[in-house]
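Handout, section B. The chain below has 486 residues.
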Amino acid sequence: MEKYDVIIIGAGVTGTAVARELSRYQIKTCVLEREEDVCCGTSKANSAIIHAGYDAEPGTLKAKLNVRGNLLIGELAEKLDFPFKRNGSLVLCLDEKDYPNLQKLYEKGITNGVKKLRILNHDEVLEMEPNVSENVYAALYAPTGGIVCPFNMTIAFAENACVNGVEFRFDTEVLNISRISSGTENWKIETTSGTYETKCIINAAGVYADRFHNMVSEKKIHIIPRKGEYCLLDKSAGSHVSHTVFALPGKFGKGVLVTPTVHGNLLIGPTAQDIENKEGTNTTRDGLDQVFIKSSNSVRNIPTRQVITSFAGLRAHEDGDDFIIGETEKDFIDCAGIESPGLSSAPAIGEMVADILKKKYDLKEKVNFVSTRKGIADLNAMSLEERNEYIRRNPAYGNIICRCEMVSEGEIIDAIKRPVGARSLDGVKRRTRAGMGRCQAGFCSPRTMEILARELETPIGKITKCGGDSRIIEGVNKDSFQEGNK
């Protein structure tokens, strides 16, 4: 039985942010993740927005941690080298009778401590964003709002935590949690890949966080998956708006948004549907129709023919409608109900949880903590001289594998060889964008699979799309035919 001081359940943005903060201290920490990689749940399927913090109710953890997380994200993006941009956000009021609701949103933002908020009139909004609805009456403008790459953000936290000593165990699903019966107060965690012992558990399991909480606590919580469907448009549509454009919030959240992405695409969505299936990430015709209709209410002439993919994500909505962060049972700390603005709040959640443990266990900081991380070289963003120098030192950087996103063999090799490296097509895609372009991996997948097989020293038939049984190749027809004709 492997023993640790702290075990984190879940390798999404919350779990990895906590892991990165805990890696500052002299403790043995492990992250257990049931999928084959980090960032396989809600963290990979969301709006990629860093919210300013005006929407959450004053006094809630959502409000406090959103504003703090927004403040931290700029410095973290520089230190950990992941894409982030403060493009600002607009909340549109399309009817004069709804103006009091916009005013209330402004007042909540001021109470929450959001900086530089102001309300724009009709002409000011259209001057800032010419493609928004001509019916716009006013808008709340938040310059501190931003956009981020959620994949690279989560991966950056994980890589930095790993470099600082945190261990990651993938394909490891937690089955049961109980106290060690030997008289110690430690926890026993039974998983699909063995049993672990730990002094402290941090529950960052997303839509499954209620399951683990309810295993150990008499005070039950209930998390319902709230499905959101999205459409991603080609980079040719990426400049249709420059700010993140929201409608006024409703019962189920912030509504359908229209936003550029940090990589130059245009994103529209999400819907909001409460479902029972915690794996229900399928898209639907009705859901995507809602995305098109509602987004067109806010922004005119969205080039919907430029959609290159659609996807759905699940938000972990807890019945109390706030984050649950803290010690639920002795040495069991919840990070549950982390829905929007969870991505924005992740750095602050990491700080908060680490502070709880620091005080509780009198943790000592490492003298050799590495606070920075360098991401994969993006040759497509380099000058010709810089690119040629990379290719001169390693010709693999001159071999383009994904033509849509101009990703080279050298970048894919780097993605595989890094700490917490890629082991699947989706793992490579999240780290390099190979397969995220207009053709959606239609051309580059075979070549990427060959590189994975070679670098991992595994048969190409074992390479998967996203771990588990998602193999691409089930047999080799040509060899079978030749063998049958010998």
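Note. The chain is about 30% helix and 25% strand. Compare this with the example in section A.
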